[in-house]
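protien #1 (seq + structre)
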Amino acid sequence: MSQRRRLPNSLRWRAVGWMEMGLSQTDVAKRLNVSRSVVQRLWDQYQSEDSVSRRPVPGRPRATTPAEDRFLALSARRRRTTTVP
């Protein structure tokens, strides 16, 4: 599974600048080392909102990673007598 990483705002604006200069989405994606769909969504957001800033995300940040969640579930199944239902 690939790692998700966020593009900083400086790279987001640089990508928009490159596309305004005439570079294709594929070329921009290669320069940033991201998928073309990431660049396409960025461009669509820029065209509709005139901004490329990240939107605020509601909710509490995760306390555990998905790997830790899997480990905890596995541990609970292995040691059923130590966990409380």
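ok now protien #2
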Amino acid sequence: MSQFMEELKVAMNEHMDLMSDLVEKFSGELRVGLQPAVDNFLGFFHAIDWKEPWLIGLLSFHVALLLTIIFSRKNINVQTSLFLVALVGVYFAESMNTFLGSNWKSFAGQNYFDKHGVFLSALWSGPLLVISIVILVNMLFSLCQVMVKWKRAELKHKARAARNKQE
């Protein structure tokens, strides 16, 4: 029995060493694989002049929209309207990119609007999609609450009807 336990202990240690090596190799490969993406993101982030008034206004718009959504979370009509507005904003992002790319000198210090729309996707469409997801999750949560209330009312009604039948 003691020899079996010793063999089991050796096998477990070998297995743990193997797993440790695998995790170490995987994390190293992941770091190496993600490094270009991290470098690109940092380059993108540092290439932007965050003190430009229109960028501050854009970020303030996103924050204000998110706060409006949070404070109006109980009003499904407002939420639905804001959801549609956010999705329409994403829909027109390509047209906005073209328009803003041809008129950037009137409001920006440099042309951020390339033909692929990376900048506008990152700073306009991305936040609007995140905000849309927040609204969608809130709508689903509200729907679940309504379904629970409806089922409780149905069960109370059935219980009352059964009680009235017995009397």
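Residues 93 and 125 are 7 Å apart (CA to CA).
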